[in-house]
Design brief:
Low-confidence stretches: none
Radius of gyration: 16 Å
Strand content: under 5%
Number of strands: 0
Order of helices and strands: HH
Helix content: over 70%
Number of helices: 2
Distance between the termini: 14 Å
Structural class: mainly alpha
Shape: elongated
Length: about 70
């Protein structure tokens, strides 16, 4: 990858945003299900799922470079 290559910038920007976005999406799904079913614990379960999914995808993307 050459310095200033836009494809490299987009790839690493994607990696930087991957974990926070997947965490937020997991929490949002859990929050919506909590509101639908009148519970309080689903948001934390789906928050955990979002974090795990973000880390797994981050590891997959980083292993492509090796």
């Amino acid at each position: 990858m050459q310095p200033g290559d836009p494809r490299g910038i987009g790839k690493y920007l994607n990696l930087a945003l991957l974990l926070p976005i997947s965490t937020f999406v997991g929490f949002a799904i859990g929050y919506g299900l909590d509101a639908l079913f009148h519970t309080r614990w689903l948001r934390f379960v789906f928050l955990g799922f979002g974090v795990i999914a973000g880390f797994l995808e981050l590891l997959r993307e980083l292993n492509k470079d090796i």
